[in-house]
User: Fold this.
Amino acid sequence: MPIIDVHAHVGRWQFPLTSGDADDNLRQMDRYGIDLQLVSASEAVVHDAVAGNRALREALATRPRLLGYAVVNPNRIDESAADLRRCLDTGRFVGAKIHTHYPGRLPGSSRMAEAFDLVADLRIPLLLHTWGPEVELLPDLVSARPGLRVVMGHAGGDAWREAAHAAAACDRLYLEHCRTATDAGRIAYAREAGVPVTRFLFGTDATLVDPSFALGVIRDAGFTPAERERVLWKNAADLFALTDTLPGRF
Assistant:
């Protein structure tokens, strides 16, 4: 079965890891049968959004199995707006990525509202780092912006119950459950809360986290074969309009 990973990174981290460049992503993808991976630059997430996005543009130019998220820094919205458009103009970027904790801006802040407006105006999907009860604010924030579609990276983290109810309340919120703590029942809880299978996505947090964690969560989630196919690639293909860029086996 094809696999699209919607949450991954290229580059080194401040943690003691051996992986570092885009070829490490490709080797890991080959190991786990991942066909296509959507990546942001770790440098852009943690240190410098513009410099990290620039380095990612270079890495993506020769690696067709990787597609990019341009990182938006809510603290430098004008700079990020121009840079986001530069990235999208290459045709190798399919969305935006916003972290909340590194820039210190949570949903509900005025700076984050400006960042949401920027992404909504461009009508591209947003991968948002979510980790905490502030996910409860997202249904209203997304509903107020018709062009905004948000993938809740980590599905709220330790607030996965709140994230499930948020996604059930807004049809433009998607759940992506990657994290190293594989709490039992997270996906079953979200389905019982009313989140349809069409709004679950597969992500790994590679190469920061080994993909085996996320693959195990999907394997044990109780999806039917048809539902698993939706989660592992069809939902992502629909959300990110990937039909024309997928490898031949799709």
Observations:
- The chain has one domain: 4-245.
- The chain is about 40% helix and 15% strand.
- The CA atoms of residues 48 and 73 lie 9 Å apart.
